[in-house]
Amino acid sequence: MKVLGVETSCDETAASVVDVTGVLSDITYSQQVHARFGGVVPELAARAHVEKVGAVVQAALDEAGIERPDAVVATAGPGLIGAVLVGLNMAKGLAAGWDVPFLGVNHLEGHLLSALLEERRPEWPFLSLVVSGGHTTLYLCKALGEYEVLAETVDDAAGEAYDKVARMMGLGYPGGPVVDRLAAEGNPEAVDFPRPRPKKGGLDWSFSGLKTAVRQHLLSDERAADADICASFQAAVIDCLMSRVNKASARTGVRRVVIGGGVAANSGLRNALLKTRHLDVYLPPKSRCTDNAAMIAHAGRLRLLQGQTDDFALRARASWVVGQ
Amino acid sequence: MNVLAIDTAGPVIGVGLRCGDVVIARSARITRGAEALLVPWARELVEEAGIAMSDIDAVGVAAGPGAFTGLRVGISTAAGLAMAIGVPLVPVGSLASRRARIADDVPTLTMLDARKGKVYGWAVDEAGQTLGGPADVPPEEAIAWMTPPFVATGEGASVYANLVTAAGGVVADDADDVAVGELARLAAEGLARGEGQVPTSVQPTYLRPPDAKPPKNTGVK
Fold first, then answer.
1. Vertex A74, ends A73 and A78: CA angle to 5°?
2. Fewer CB within 10 Å: N-end or C-end of chain A?
């Protein structure tokens, strides 16, 4: 079964074809229009999606060497609703025109399961850390559709903190890759930024205090070099992320860990995971950590294989808890 | 010729199917959720007409102006259908299809409510010559294009009916009608004139720039 997947939930316009052999095509157009705004502008994102989505879908079909897939799936949420609607409706139109099954995919499920697309893939159950500009959540993935939230952020997402810190430092947008690159050249112990702890017994994160601490440091008389600030900030974020992953692994007895989301492309986080010997880590390539359609097509295909489809009356959802 | 037409530019959305000269249609006034209706309606109409999706010769779509999200929902759905069926997509002005409900020799002001105290307006005289627009303007400015007597149509005419009446105009009885039948006819005529496009190339006509401002200064750099 060849499945076409379409993803337009934020600022990437993407389409992909997958089948039992793996990814046949994976086309992503990354919108550049948001850079000068320091963040994704929903109306600009939606306009850019409708400009590109048809050409991106056509390119995915061409690269896969097919004229018509056996099913069409698309991200139906969560995300920027005006952006989600573009890909979702194109997918519905395509499926109806081809007279093939249609399914709406939860974007987060795409990230959760993206490691299953790789040759070296984890067995169930596994821990999945989804960490991006919109999400910072650790799931226990028990089976397809059975996900338990073990930890999540109570305020900013980790990627959001990266973007805000980068903006405060005048490093541009998106901030994650720039901070990551500078951090590699800096001293992670130069500034002692706080590692906010969860409430007793909990595993949740909070990143807004860390962001404020960076701001206070930037305004202080003893401001460190940019590379040192980035390295110290990144070390704090990674300490927070890793401490919860380690605790969750100890509590659940599950050693297999996968990551997804834009911050999963962060080299500091990837290195920290790989260095943790008691974890069995599965890292998707960086291109499959950021938003892409292969993960959507893949998650959709797994559900289609279980006999699931959606009615064409399916609504887009700005918020959608994965697994519900 | 079988033409499927989709209009989601205004608060009343619709899908029409024109087979020869016969039009069947669905429409509804909604505040959100057009994505739940368009494809189910299209499939119902195709079944009702006793044809298959693959028998459709072209898809027409209201390309704007109109509600930003609505336009994108309509265009992406229409583009997906046209791509998969393998037929051209014909963009039609959303003010033009509404204007087409009124007799050609009647001076007509067509308006869609653009919110923020403005309308997307277009005025034509009895000879079909444009008097103003299509433009994103305050309703008073659009109405000032007209010399009474005139007819005003489009759901913006209903919203600003008192201004139209005060200026000596008459609001059409069916001003709120989404006019998908006319849209399908204009699309068929456009197709005959070679205005059918590759589905991936059709874009909305917004008439209004996006509301996007650079972020406020954070105070540190």
1. 140
2. C
pLDDT at residue number B147: 97
Interface ipTM: 0.96
B221 touches chain A (CB under 8 A): yes
Residue B218 has a pLDDT of: 54
The third-level CATH classification (topology) of the domain covering B102-171 is Nucleotidyltransferase; domain 5 (3.30.420)
CB atoms within 10 A of CB A288: 23
Cβ <8 Å between B76 and A50: yes
Which residues, other chains included, contact A253 with Cβ-Cβ below 8 Å and sequence gap of 6+?
Answer: none
Render pLDDT for A253-279 as a digit per residue (tens, 0 to 9).
999 999 999 999 999 999 999 999 999
Position A323 pLDDT exceeds 90: no
Residue-level pLDDT at A201: 84
Only one residue has tokens 């010399």, namely B147
Contact in structure between A124 and A140 (CB atoms under 8 Å): no
**Partner-chain contact B72 A57, CB within 8 Å:** no
- Please report the pLDDT score of residue B141 as a whole number: 98
Name the band, by pLDDT with cuts 50, 70 and 90, for residue B216: low
Q: Cβ–Cβ of B73/A49 closer than 8 Å?
A: no
User: Does CATH number 3.90.25.10 belong to domain A123-283?
Assistant: no
Q: Which helix (H) or strand (E) holds B181?
A: helix B180-192
- Got the DSSP string for A268-296? HHHHHHHH-TTSEEE---GGGTSS-SHHH
Q: B190 to chain A, minimum CA–CA distance in Å?
A: 22
> Cβ(B125)–Cβ(B150) under 8 Å?
no
Model confidence pLDDT, tens digit, residues B144-178: 999 999 999 999 999 999 999 999 999 999 999 99
The Cα B66–Cα B10 span in angstroms is 6
Strand, helix or coil for residue A219: helix
Query: Which CATH code is given to the segment(s) A3-112+291-305?
Result: 3.30.420.40
The residues that bridge with A247 in the sheet, in sequence order, are none
How many CB atoms sit inside 10 A of residue A142's CB? Answer: 15
CA–CA gap between residue A226 and residue B2 (Å, rounded): 64
Question: How many contacts (CB atoms, under 8 Å) link A and B?
Answer: 134
Interval A42-84: pLDDT, tens: 999 999 999 999 999 999 999 999 999 999 999 999 999 999 9
Q: What is the dihedral of CA B65, B66, B72, B78, to 10 degrees?
A: -70
What CATH superfamily is the domain B2-93+178-201?
ATPase, nucleotide binding domain (3.30.420.40)
